[in-house]
Amino acid sequence: MNWLGAVPAWCWWLIALVMVAGGQEIRVGAEKSAAATARGETATARTELSNYRLQVAERDRRAAAQARTEEQRRQAVADKEGESARQQLELAQGRAAAAESAAGGLRGEIDRLRAGRAATCGAIATQQRQAGASAVVVLGGLLEESDRMAGDLAAALERSRIAGLACESIYNGLTK
């Protein structure tokens, strides 16, 4: 240990200082390397994020276009079935008007038969005439009323059937 005493104290301080400075230099270099790696990773992450955002935007655009196409298809089905139902209703209303016209002719014939019955019954006894006339009047009234009700019910049933078929067609068209 003699030789340790031969080295002046200030040299020991200088050696310690050089060792500390060298250690610090190595640590700073390692941190700079880590920072450069982190910057590279950050740049890579930013690029990946940008690519991901582009992919998501493209998927959103495609989904929106597909949704618009589906909505247009459904609207076209509903419009087509609605137009078909309107045409069927117009046809049914035309048939109902023709049936009402025919029923009006039958009611006119019933009125003519009533009038004829009243005219021919002049020769028959008063009691028989009143009983016969009242039966013809009652039966004629019942026939008129039942005919009118049958026409109304048939028209309502036809409208209901057309509306139900149109609704079913629209549903089937939308669920394809």
Structural summary, described in words:
The protein is mainly alpha-helical and 176 residues long. It has one domain. Helix content is 94%, strand content 0%. It contains 3 helices and no strands. The chain has helices at 2-6, 9-120, 126-174. Helix 2 (9-120) packs antiparallel against helix 3 (126-174). The protein is rod-shaped. The two termini are 99 Å apart. The model has no long low-confidence stretch (mean pLDDT 82).
The averaged pLDDT comes out at 82
Number of domain modules: 1
Element string (H = helix, E = strand) = HHH
Straight-line N-to-C gap: 99 Å
Report the radius of gyration as a whole number of Å. Answer: 51 Å
Identify the quaternary structure here.
single chain
Supply the number of helical segments: 3
Count of beta strands = 0
- The proportion of strand residues reads under 5%
Structural class call reads: mainly alpha
- The level of helicity is over 70%
Largest sheet: none
Uncertain residue segments: none
Described by the principal axes of the CA atoms, the overall outline is rod-shaped
